């Protein structure tokens, strides 16, 4: 019975983890140089900018589909 208490929190954490992992894989495929440079220089600003662009492109594609 204890697991039912935490099932929603675990589902949300799992979903967020899946989204972040899929964004990183997507960036590895679409922008490998930008991602490698961001990790090499420890510059999270460029990484956040690339993730934001990927999210915006995904949302734009979903909006066009609908």
Features:
mainly alpha; single chain; flat; 66 residues; 92% helix
Outline of this structure?
This protein has 66 residues and is mostly helical. It has three helices and no strands.
Describe this structure in words.
This protein has helices at 2-30, 32-41, 44-65. The protein has one domain. It is built from 3 helices and no strands. It is 92% helix and 0% strand. Helix 1 (2-30) crosses helix 2 (32-41), helix 1 packs across helix 3 (44-65) and helix 2 packs antiparallel against helix 3. With 66 residues, the chain is an all-alpha fold. The chain is flat, with a radius of gyration of 16 Å.
Outline the biggest β-sheet.
none
Q: Summarize model confidence as the mean pLDDT.
A: 80
Helix-strand makeup class = mainly alpha
How many domains? The number is 1
Strand content: under 5%
Radius of gyration: 16 Å
- Give the number of DSSP strands: 0
Distance between the termini: 41 Å
Total count of helical runs of at least 4 residues: 3
SSE ordering: HHH
The geometry reads as flat
Helix content: over 70%
User: Poorly predicted ranges (pLDDT <50, ≥5 residues)?
Assistant: none
